[in-house]
UniProtKB/TrEMBL annotation:
Family assignment from sequence similarity: Belongs to the glutathione peroxidase family.
GO molecular function: peroxidase activity
Pfam family for this entry, one: GSHPx
Organism: Monoraphidium neglectum
Keywords tagged on the record: Oxidoreductase, Peroxidase
Sequence ranges assigned to domain Thioredoxin in this UniProt record: 26-186
Name of the molecule in the record: Glutathione peroxidase
Hydrolase among keywords: no
Active-site residue numbers: 64
GO BP: any one term: response to oxidative stress
UniProt-listed InterPro entries: Glutathione_peroxidase (IPR000889), GPX_AS (IPR029759), GPX_CS (IPR029760), Thioredoxin-like_sf (IPR036249), Thioredoxin_domain (IPR013766)
Amino acid sequence: MQSSLIKAQRTAFVQSARPTRRPVRVMASTGFYGLSAKTLEGEAFSFDSFKGKVVVITNVACACGLTNSNYTQLVQLYDKYKDQGLEVVAFPCNQFGRQESGSPDQIRKFVDTKYGVKFQMMEKVDVNGPSTHPVWQYLKGACAGCDGDVDWNFRAKFIVDKNGNVVARSAADPAAIEPKIKELLAA
């Protein structure tokens, strides 16, 4: 009897100690095009501007071991397919190894100088936990296989088709998602 009581108390404690997710502030009926975020420069940005385009959204960091390969490949993909309708959106995140500790100005200078980034850079956000940005809450619940916490910098690339449907989530390098991007651009 006592062990059942202890087990029940432990279960209640563990459940109360779990971080709760903030509810998604975007109505399900508005979908992907109803999302918005701030740019790295602090300006409001509506995802409505992505209508008719294929979009890749990922979390990034300037001081990660994956930074060079991922930024290089993201820039190559964007440059190769932007005229066909590809958009890349990068959200800096400091939740993994504190590898994105810079200010917006420092991040902008780094990506512009080192990689020549021309795609959309957004504000620094949380992609997991109780302060998860609404865009990331939406993305992680938008398709079969999209759910679950992000496990590291550059390890969540969400692919959105021309109709605003989140069709895939990939942890692979950007070059590995090129066939899916080509398929969606051709559709």
